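We modelled the chain as a single entity of 259 amino acids. Its sequence is:
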Amino acid sequence: MAQDHLLVEKLGPILSLTLNRPESLNAFSPDMILGLTEAIHNAIEDGDIQVIVLSGAGRSFSAGGDVKTMGQAGGNQIYDHIGKLNDLILLMKDIEKPIIAAVHGFAAGAGFNLALACDLIVAAEDSKYALSFSQVGLISDGGGSYHLPRLIGPHLAKQFFFTAEPIPAERLYQLGVINYLVPLEKLQDETTKLALRLANGPTKAYGKQKKLVDQAFTSTLAEILEKERLTQPLMVETEDHQEGIAAFKEKRKPEFKGK
């Protein structure tokens, strides 16, 4: 069933993960969350995979929680379900490989939060967003309470959580939440182009930089300075660093290998 709810495809150095419940706007299911967790675990061990692209099948990225099944589960079941979602979000932040969200249609509730947990967001110009939890008397889950205030500040985050108002893609682009805003018909091509650019870059450096940026929000300046100090000696020993130096001296484009 997990394979039905998530399409997994290796495209050279890119791992494509497609949420696949188009009839419900890719609302989350336990099998979908399980499939994502398993696929990202596998990507950690797969040296051929350099970048992960997360997208949605059909008309939307994801509507988040499945409203049709809400009210049918008790508190203990919800506790366990969110625990599995939390494991997925933590794994997405832990993997030292960039994750790109390619968003079209709607990204609502936990679907929006799933995109926020990615490292970069490429979005269609007509995509729409909402943190719709308050409309059904719930709080945000999937890490939205952590990621969004850090991106846009606490006051605006509270506004979006309290009001559940639709948020146009253009506004999120101006706020710095969305990295690239493109016409819908170019979403796949532009996302693939970005993914290949990263896959052909110094991916070991990207992985360490991802960790440092994420840790910066919960670390002091002194702690980050020390982490940089400890990490940089490892970087200068990589083949990619040596290739970058050689390419600079030879006035050519570097050919990184992620080693």
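As a brief sanity check on the tokenised model: The first helix runs from residue 2 to 5. The chain has a mean pLDDT of 93.
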